[in-house]
Amino acid sequence: xxxxxxxxxxxxxxxxxxxxxxxxxxxxxxxxxxxxxxxxxxxxxxxxxxxxxxxxxxxxxxxxxxxxxxxxxxxxxxxxxxxxxxxxxxxxxxxxxxxxxxxxxxxxxxxxxxxxxxxxxxxxxxxxxxxxxxxxxxxxxxxxxxxxxxxxxxxxxxxxxxxxxxxxxxxxxxxxxxxxxxxxxxxxxxxxxxxxxxxxxxxxxxxxxxxxxxxxxxxxxxxxxxxxxxxxxxxxxxxxxxxxxxxxxxxxxxxxxxxxxxxxxxxxxxxxxxxxxxxxxxxxxxxxxxxxxxxxxxxxxxxxxxxxxxxxxxxxxxxxxxxxxxxxxxxxxxxxxxxxxxxxxxxxxxxxxxxxxxxxxxxxxxxxxxxxxxxxxxxxxxxxxxxxxxxxxxxxxxxxxxxxxxxxxxxxxxxxxxxxxxxxxxxxxxxxxxxxxxxxxxxxxxxxxxxxxxxxxxxxxxxxxxxxxxxxxxxxxxxxxxxxx
Length: 485
Ligand code: URP
Ligand code: ZN
Ligand code: ZN
Ligand code: ZN
Description:
This protein is an alpha/beta fold and 485 residues long. Helix content is 34%, strand content 22%. It has a single domain (52-387, 452-464), classed as Metal-dependent hydrolases (TIM Barrel, Alpha-Beta Barrel). A hairpin with a 2-residue loop joins strand 9 and strand 10 (69-70). The protein starts with a strand and ends with a helix.
């Protein structure tokens, strides 16, 4: 199977140039002007279009068992919807229950993901701690291609970690050359404020943002970042939603710390007014954590992407349909947290980022693909258009429009947070492992064609940190000689 993408403009994180791209056996085999069409090759006409690395969504939750239910989007439908939007790889999460052995949870998720139609990797969450967790993190990192571990600082009485566990796990991450990642919200504060809301009779979805104010996120982000600083390990903050946590990241980066921040398409574009809507179903459909924020936070997040203080964009794609959200009709704390977006991220970022001049086309590639590939150490195999890289490519038509709607999207959920948004700039073709899996608005995917992508430990930041550590090693004062005098 071979594919020639002809007549397009290649856009990478660094360069923009006219070239054809030839893919064979799942890899990019040639890049150049006027390549010959090999016999039997499928030809994709990319005239007037951009040829970019396929999107990487570093934060999804397909078929996640969460808050008493299971996310409606599974690995097959979710990776297919991703492909329809130009995203060719997801990094999902293994989330063990407290006390559940990490290896068991990992094998369970690997099994669920086998039906994926496009490539995938996993972060593994550390939700409890003992010697077996310490051991299993080593097996996962050294044998199973896991190079990032997630810590939920929220969700008290469920998957929340204590500071003690976080310190133990961050230290282990450093030993293993794995990225520590955090969901930064002070779970004790959230719990306290939730009880306050319920006592006041605020039981509807408007209680959700009011019990998770930005300060609660900023405090946790700062705590996690300072903890990582003291332990001298890199850290990645997922779904940065507000000025307070962005400020913590920016400050630390200005001090030279290796801190990375992700933001979600939803947090860039949707504000907290949705929670005050009269319609319970509409408001509940937006319940996700951290919540959508007042508009000034969105402006700050865009500036975070522009300045490079935020490096990646994701969706936290975690779908629950109206009957599932209804579990919290009388108590907002029981509404399953999560919203969709894996299909829409690239087009809404292009429309609101590139079309408005906030982002260049190269910056678009960085924040939708290359930076995630570099941080999670799968670059240049992923996130690049280079000879030998995986042929995961999106052919992007900057003039193609789409009106986003739950009625027409591929995502397996009955609601779309971007409903009725018209985007200009959409994929005309998505190519996964060299195969055209989406064209003319139609998917042509194969269940199980997606592969588990192992990610090596010790990305480039660890070598630099190792040298810093040697320079700043703890020192002892030897007073024995003095005493003998
Ligand atoms: O509300 C959310 N984000 N649900 C998924 C779990 C998480 O916190 O990432
Ligand atoms: Zn250890
Ligand atoms: Zn989270
Ligand atoms: Zn998440």
